[in-house]
Amino acid sequence: MAKVVATTSQLFCPIDAFYGVTDQAARAAQEELSAMLKEYCGAKTREFWVDKDNPTVELN
């Protein structure tokens, strides 16, 4: 578990899912988390989806 404090500048939040089973719920959770971080923390967010067709993302 990570601790987020006022000086936190980067945060990575993986949300796991099974394709065809829980992937739609994971996408909804991703959108909701992003919206909440923006609203309550003033965060700038980026959303990525990693799967067999897109196995990596660039976080820089």
Structure description:
With 60 residues, this protein is mainly α. It has a domain at 21-45. It has one helix at 23-41. The relative contact order is 0.12.
The gist of it:
The chain is mainly alpha-helical.
Largest sheet report: none
Mean pLDDT: 91
Which stretches of 5+ consecutive residues score pLDDT under 50?
Answer: none
C-alpha Rg, in Å?
13 Å
Essential attributes:
60 residues, mainly alpha
Write the layout of secondary structure elements.
Layout: H1 23-41
